[in-house]
Amino acid sequence: MSAPCPILGFTVLVDLRDSTEEWQGGELTRSLTDLLAAQGLVASGGGGRQLLFVVSREGSQATEAERQLVQSWAREWSSVADITVSDLLDLSPAS
Length: 95
Prior knowledge:
This protein is of the alpha+beta class. It is 32% helix and 31% strand. Strands 1, 2, 3, 4 and 5 form a five-stranded antiparallel β-sheet that branches.
């Protein structure tokens, strides 16, 4: 019996700056979910001024190229939030 395939994805931690308005946080979240949807990725999670999203793909795996795309997106929002994109992780429940 072989081990199950890993479910590769990554996390995005968003820490809104003190000067960031609520509407800007909403725009940031919409921008992220639009970017992910265009790549066939989904995000679960959320939060208040600190948000944590787990990014994955239904029935497949996120790639390093997609993770790097999100890192590039994060740099564009640096005036609104500190954003940390993790390395690729195995998101399998048993991991």
